[in-house]
Design brief:
There is one protein chain. With 262 residues, the protein is α/β, with parallel strands linked by helices. The protein contains 8 helices and 13 strands. Strands 3, 4, 5, 6, 9, 10, 11, 12 and 13 form a 9-stranded mixed sheet that branches. The protein has a two-stranded antiparallel ribbon with strand order 1-2. The longest helix has 12 residues. The radius of gyration is 17 Å and the shape is globular.
């Protein structure tokens, strides 16, 4: 465990992809990224290249995982919270990240800005090939966490998911890919926000165990496509004894991609 000298948060150094990259994460406050971020990165197509935006990046786990798995990618880690964005910058300076740090930069900005404000913040229209996001899953009226940073990470603003998808549609080039991980019961939010913006929507259920209902989904879609929606078979993350399934192990360590249909 290391204490960051730049961020106001006490941090620990976490290794991912069996040591292929490391990220500084807060120890006592804020949200610590884990499997959701890694599964999100695993949703990118094999050999993804170009410029990627990780919206609401936190300390950057999903974006750095995408870089580690895709040598042809560059990434902008977009995060509104100054302490979390500072940790993301410090993570890029870690020796373990030397192979990917030159392909990433951190942008302190609100992912839900619109119009001229969004462009002035550094998110130019039609400038990205891929957008990934793990948006907050609670709404403003829900009971917040007593941890202010954790509450910020988990609480959706007044614009809801639509404001995040609006930004993704604006900054993606035509034919660009958006990926998000979301709660299954709120799939309607995703479909409503993608209406008229994205097509070729592919839904990947994530099952904690065989026979259980999927609690989360990864959704991938194409900017401006008119191709129909598809539903994938899904991935089981744990065996009956609670241990990680072999396919989950491959996905969470950068050695496989989510098997989207279509």
């Amino acid at each position: 465990m290391n204490v960051s000298e730049k961020s106001a948060l006490t941090s620990r150094r976490d290794a991912f992809f069996r040591g292929r990259f490391e990220v500084l994460q807060p120890t006592d406050q804020g949200h610590r990224a884990g499997s959701d971020a890694l599964l999100l990165a695993a949703g990118l197509m094999e050999g993804a290249s170009g410029l990627l935006a990780d919206l609401g990046a936190g300390v950057g786990v999903a974006g750095l995982a995408a870089l580690a798995a895709n040598p042809g990618l560059e990434a902008v880690l977009v995060e509104i919270d100054p302490d979390m964005s500072d940790l993301a910058r410090e993570s890029l300076e870690l020796p373990a990240n030397a192979a990917i740090a030159g392909r990433a930069r951190v942008l302190k900005a609100d992912a839900t800005l619109t119009g001229d404000k969004r462009q002035a913040a550094g998110l130019a229209n039609h400038s990205f090939d891929h957008v990934i996001m793990n948006p907050p899953y609670n709404h403003a009226g829900q009971r917040p966490s007593p941890d202010e940073l954790r509450s910020l990470a988990h609480t959706m603003g007044e614009g809801g998911l639509d404001s995040w998808l609006r930004t993704a549609a604006a900054i993606l080039r035509p034919g660009g890919t958006v990926l998000l991980i979301w709660r299954t019961e709120r799939l309607g939010d995703v479909l409503a926000g993608m209406q008229g913006r994205f097509g070729a929507i592919s839904i990947m259920p994530l099952y904690a165990r065989e026979g259980e209902a999927a609690s989360r989904i990864v959704v991938r879609a194409i900017r401006g496509s008119r191709a129909p929606l598809s539903l994938s078979q899904g991935v089981v993350l744990h065996d009956a004894d609670g241990s990680q399934s072999p396919v989950a192990d491959q996905l969470l360590n950068g050695n496989a991609r989510l098997p989207f249909a279509g």
